[in-house]
TrEMBL record:
Domain Alcohol dehydrogenase-like C-terminal, residue spans: 206-337
Protein family per UniProt: Belongs to the zinc-containing alcohol dehydrogenase family.
Domain Alcohol dehydrogenase-like N-terminal: 35-164
Subunit-structure text: Homodimer.
Keyword tRNA processing: no
This protein's name: Alcohol dehydrogenase 1-like
Cofactor field: Zn(2+)
CDD domains, per the entry: alcohol_DH_plants (cd08301)
Sorted UniProt keywords: Metal-binding, Oxidoreductase, Zinc
Top-level taxon: Eukaryota
């Protein structure tokens, strides 16, 4: 890596040239980092459902050619002007949302929604100068959520980089930079289930399983998994889920089923599907007086739901969360330490691994519902 600072680097990247078409491994040029930016050498990256969603370009503004990828682990190759907290050689996780440490959100203990670096899925350029750092034969290639980790090298705003313990295995902890922390934090930081309490998890994909892992770590006694796909139930047992409900098995609303199972409702619920009906069920299935429901799943933009106001008057609480309420730079290093201390298990989330040259297989596994997380090894 020494000797590359300040120069354009040529490397391999998986480029999405158009929506829904297989990614193409290309040689691209990666410009040096500008002010408040760092250039990272990516060693491991993972595929998240958000990458697939924007690659398919269903329901949002398509932006191509683009380099996707936002769950990853790597090493700082060089830093731009003004970067003081990171240096070449640091082990890091790039994160799709940032922490400038200066705005009202960053200075608040209650928020992680940085004004400057909050996720922006439409922006394909760096905020410093409105340009891309990727190109091929002079043609700009757009960034994705400020990370673009499906490239051997990438440029990221320094505020979107968590510096972590260099002893942590990057092929495991890389999955903490998106979905796992989203679900884990929704439970631990927002729902906050008490020891021996009950909790319902709606949706048993990667985020829902991470929410269940959070419930397991918190000592919840009854962890009820709710999913329309019964094939997910066996896998979910590894994450502490000990009861299962398939709404299709009943001729009444699932919130009524759960209330009957739990003597009036669960203490906590976490919704990880984005379905309006699941959101209503998650709220209405919590116990009056103390029940808390947390929404994690992202709905369609025109969605709305209704519930009777008396649910609130009966002291049920409805909350939402973004990235599990973790501040990327401040909190993620501590989550890595939970893994290092064996409090948090990550291996069970990783179901597949492929070399970078076979990245399209990772998309196939996810589209077929076979993978929770597929790790992509940048060095074949």
């Amino acid at each position: 890596m020494p000797g590359t600072a300040g120069r354009v680097i040529k490397c391999r990247a998986a480029v999405a040239w158009e929506a829904g078409k297989p990614l193409v491994i290309e040689e691209v040029e990666v410009a040096p980092p500008q002010a408040n930016e760092v250039r990272l050498k990516i060693l491991f990256t993972a595929l998240c459902h958000t990458d697939v969603y924007f690659w398919e370009a269903k329901g949002q503004t398509p932006l191509f050619p683009r380099i996707f990828g936002h769950e990853a682990g790597g090493i700082v190759e060089s830093v731009g002007e003004g970067v003081t907290e990171l240096q070449p050689g640091d082990h890091v996780l790039p994160v799709f949302t940032g922490e400038c440490k200066e705005c009202r959100h960053c200075k608040s203990e209650e928020s992680n929604m940085c004004d400057l670096l909050r996720i922006n899925t439409d922006r394909g350029v760096m905020i410093n100068d409105g340009k891309t750092r990727f190109s091929k034969n002079g043609q700009p290639i757009y960034h994705f959520v400020g990370t673009s980790t499906f490239s051997e090298y990438t440029v990221v705003h320094a505020g979107c980089v968590a510096k972590i313990n260099p002893k942590a295995p990057l092929d495991k902890v890389c999955i903490l930079s998106c979905g796992i922390c989203t679900g884990l934090g929704a439970t631990i930081n927002v729902a906050k289930p008490k020891k021996d309490s009950s909790i319902a998890i709606f949706g048993l994909g990667a985020v829902g399983l991470a929410a269940a892992e959070g419930a397991r770590i918190s000592g919840a006694a009854r962890i009820i998994g709710v999913d329309l796909n019964p094939s997910r139930f066996e896998e979910a047992k590894k994450f502490g889920v000990n009861e299962f409900v398939n709404p299709n098995d009943y001729d009444k609303p699932v919130q009524e089923v759960i209330a009957e199972m739990t003597n009036g409702g669960v203490d906590r619920s976490v919704e990880c599907t984005g379905s309006i009906q699941a959101m209503i069920s998650a709220f209405e299935c919590v116990h009056d007086g103390w029940g808390v429901a947390v929404l994690v799943g992202v709905p369609n933009k025109d969605d709305a739901f209704k519930t009777h106001p008396v649910n609130f008057l009966n002291e049920k609480t409805l909350k939402g969360t973004f990235y599990g309420n973790y501040k990327p730079r401040t909190d993620i290093p501590g989550v890595v330490e939970k893994y290092m201390n064996k409090e948090l298990e990550l291996e069970k989330f990783i179901t597949h691994s492929v070399p970078f040259s076979e990245i399209n297989k990772a998309f196939e596994y996810m589209l077929q519902g076979k993978s929770i997380r597929c790790i992509i090894r940048m060095e074949d």
